[in-house]
Amino acid sequence: MSEIALESVTKRFAAVRAVDGVSFRAEKGKFVVLLGPSGCGKSTLLRLIAGLEEVSEGKILIEGRDVTRL
Q: Where are the alpha helices (DSSP H) in 16-68?
């Protein structure tokens, strides 16, 4: 498992902010849980990390490598 870091990640769909300025670091070998009510952006955040959606603002780093625009 790799370290994943998000720096002020935002995702907009037209005028709606699905994810707004999220920053966190999931260290290598650690277990991380995203918890929140329906519609709060958990799935969108995972889709951003997986590269299935494009980040509007901010950076996604995996093992220190910027993968935001890959």
A: 42-50
Backbone angles phi, psi at 5, to 5 degrees: -130, 135
Closest CA to 8 of 68, 69, 62: 68
Compute the distance between CA of residue 60 and CA of residue 68 in angstroms, rounded to an integer. Answer: 5
Q: State the CB neighbour count (10 A cutoff) for residue 51.
A: 14
- 14-36 pLDDT tens trace: 999 999 999 999 999 999 999 99
Q: DSSP 3-state assignment of 29? A: coil
* Residue 16: partners with Cβ closer than 8 Å, 6 or more residues away: none
